[in-house]
Automatic annotation (TrEMBL):
GO cellular component: maltose transport complex
Transmembrane segments: 16-39, 51-70, 82-107, 228-255, 267-288, 294-311, 318-340, 432-454
InterPro entries attached to this UniProt entry: MalF_N, MetI-like, MetI-like_sf
Residues annotated as domain ABC transmembrane type-1: 229-453
Source superkingdom: Bacteria
A single MF term (Gene Ontology): ABC-type maltose transporter activity
UniProt similarity note: Belongs to the binding-protein-dependent transport system permease family. MalFG subfamily.
Organism field: Deinococcus koreensis
Its job: Part of the ABC transporter complex MalEFGK involved in maltose/maltodextrin import. Probably responsible for the translocation of the substrate across the membrane.
Localization, UniProt: Cell membrane
Protein name: Maltose/maltodextrin transport system permease protein
């Protein structure tokens, strides 16, 4: 008689260990389905070269539909945790994958010129031999060796990739190279009979370069990293101090219960925060126009010369601080009013009985009691403005240009806009690998700032209790 099989547990593991086990099982299921989808999509691409790229998603979904019930049979309790599936998918797709790619690209030469894609600018005519293994490039070989044209790592070009096109040049066909001679390329395998070769080009490969990107960043530190980093610190620190002082003053004034119409004033002063920054910053660009802006027009009526608000490095920085004050003081004002509502009015009544003036009450009661509430706000505000890309991009786009600086790191660029310019605005030669290295540097700087913030806010002390 067969012994009865042991029933699988239906009660999920408890505590933090249970959560980790469930997340681990679901992550493993996603990884297996992703691997199956990748293998099947690669096989599909070989069988049907015109198959759309999204076939990998179709295969992954099919694998999930098959393997999820099997996983539920192996672990009956996992059904209670399937609600984590969408969260895991979004975390992997929008957090883990970008981080992994960024770290990977930081150690490569990935750029617009080394993108891993066929080089359309170097496309040339090609003919195919009868055995469909030898490709002749009649326009290559006289002035430029074929190995140089293909950017081969070795003179024989063995293992390199040649990209073939038909008359329509709509679908690239990648073939591995066995050897080159003169202007002919011998392929490792014959070209499929369905392909009518009419043109060929090279593959712009990217490769690992180790710490070369970081060496380039630090070798040009005086022209990019140091001035940009210093301005980033000054910008974040000045912004949070100016906004906090303005918000604190306005908050204390508008909290006065004897002030008539204070709700109207609050509403009007809250409007800059309610209006989207994309709209209000463009308004400020028009106001600060050196020739036609209303600010300089008004200054001219008062007898002052036109100020180059956005055309001079120093004035551009002042303009950024002023516009960021316009955008940020309503938040600080609202935070001040909310914090003031937590202070007991009896303290002020007692101070008034003792003869304390309004200023003495603010200095000795209001400010000390606001310190606890404002410390995390100030620290988080500093971290936010440290990476405040929007105001820089919308108001000055990093400019104006400054002599002795890299073209991607101009007078008002912060670290984040410097990385953006390097990746997307570098005159068509987008250096994604260098931008990824900059992103890693920003990550470690932000991590250090966050640790200081946690230390100053007493988070670590609270966690130990």
């Amino acid at each position: 008689m067969r012994p009865p099989t042991k029933a699988r547990p239906t009660v999920p593991p408890q505590g933090a260990a249970g959560v980790l086990i469930a997340v681990g099982i679901l992550s493993a299921l996603l990884a297996i389905c992703g691997l199956i989808g990748w293998l099947l999509s690669s096989l599909t691409a070989q069988i049907a070269p015109t198959a759309p790229p999204y076939m990998i998603l179709v295969w992954i979904l099919a694998a999930l539909l098959v393997l999820t019930p099997l996983t539920s049979r192996l672990f009956p309790w996992i059904s209670n945790w399937l609600y984590l599936f969408p969260a895991l998918v979004f975390i992997l797709a929008f957090t883990v994958l970008p981080v992994v790619l960024t770290v990977n690209y930081a150690f490569t030469n990935y750029s617009g010129a080394n993108s891993g894609n066929p080089d359309s600018a170097s496309r040339t005519t090609a003919t195919l031999s009868a055995d469909r293994r030898v490709v002749t490039l009649p326009e290559v070989g006289a002035d430029q060796p074929l190995s140089e044209f293909l950017k081969c790592a070795a003179p024989s070009c063995a293992g390199a990739t040649l990209v073939l096109y038909d008359e329509d040049a709509s679908v690239p066909y990648r073939q591995l190279v066995d050897s080159v001679r003169g202007n002919t390329v011998t392929l490792r395998t014959a070209v499929p009979a369905a392909v009518q070769v009419a043109a060929a080009t090279r593959l712009n490969r990217y490769e690992y370069v180790g710490l070369q990107n970081f060496q380039e960043i630090f070798s040009k530190a005086s022209r990019a990293l140091l001035p940009v980093f210093i301005w980033t610190i000054v910008f974040a620190f000045s912004t949070i101090i100016i906004n906090a002082v303005a918000g604190l003053i306005l908050g204390i004034l508008l909290y006065n219960k004897r002030l008539k119409g204070r709700n109207i004033y609050r509403t009007l002063l809250f409007l800059p925060w309610a209006i989207p920054a994309v709209i209000s910053v463009q308004m400020w660009v028009a106001l600060f126009n050196q020739q036609f802006g209303i600010v300089n027009k008004t200054l001219g009526l008062l007898g002052f010369v036109a100020v180059p608000w956005l055309n001079d490095p120093l004035w551009a920085k002042i303009s950024i601080l002023l516009v960021n004050l316009w955008l940020g003081f309503p938040y600080m004002m609202t935070a001040t009013i909310s914090a003031l509502s937590t202070i007991n009015d009896d303290l002020y009544e007692a101070a008034s009985i003792d003869g304390a003036s309004r200023w003495q009450q603010i200095v000795n009661i209001t400010l000390p009691l606001l310190r606890t509430s404002f410390t995390p706000i100030l620290l988080s505000g500093f971290a936010f403005n440290f990476n405040n890309f929007g105001i820089i991009y919308l108001l000055t786009a990093g400019g104006p240009a400054q002599e002795g600086r890299e073209s991607t790191a101009q007078s008002t660029d912060i670290l984040l806009s410097w990385g953006y310019n390097t990746a997307f605005v570098s005159s068509g030669g987008q250096n994604f690998s260098l931008a990824s290295a900059i992103a890693l540097i920003i990550f470690f700087l932000t991590l250090a700032i966050s640790l200081v913030n946690f230390k100053a806010a007493g988070v670590f002390e609270e966690a130990r209790k």
